[in-house]
């Protein structure tokens, strides 16, 4: 069962949504393509993850050469074990 809305309520909601779209477009930039921005962001995340994976491989090899653990190398180098920075 669908709820029915008055024509005026629908018009008001449409105006609110259009105002929200306009505000978001201002924030994004007038002639910016949102899909292109998202695609670029995903590409940057892939590059970040590849670099992080390579660094972790090197840290693992360093730990092996030093005869210690990866955790100890992280502690020795003051590396955080999260992606917040």
UniProtKB/TrEMBL annotation:
Q: Which GO terms describe its biological process?
A: meiotic DNA recombinase assembly involved in reciprocal meiotic recombination; meiotic joint molecule formation
Q: Which Pfam families match?
A: Swi5 (PF07061)
Q: Which domain of life is it from?
A: Eukaryota
Kindly list the GO CC terms recorded for this protein: Swi5-Sfr1 complex; Swi5-Swi2 complex
Q: Which residues form a coiled coil?
A: 7-37
* Keywords for this protein: Coiled coil, DNA damage, DNA repair
InterPro entries (UniProt xref): DNA-repair_Swi5
Family listed: Belongs to the SWI5/SAE3 family.
* The protein's name: Swi5-domain-containing protein
């Amino acid at each position: 069962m669908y709820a029915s809305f008055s024509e005026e309520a629908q018009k008001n909601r449409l105006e609110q949504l259009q105002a929200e779209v306009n505000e978001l477009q201002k924030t994004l930039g007038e002639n910016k393509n949102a899909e292109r921005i998202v695609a670029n962001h995903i590409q940057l995340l892939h590059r970040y993850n590849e670099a992080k994976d390579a660094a972790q491989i090197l840290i693992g090899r360093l730990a092996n050469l030093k005869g210690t653990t990866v955790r100890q190398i992280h502690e020795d180098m003051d590396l955080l074990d999260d992606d917040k920075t």
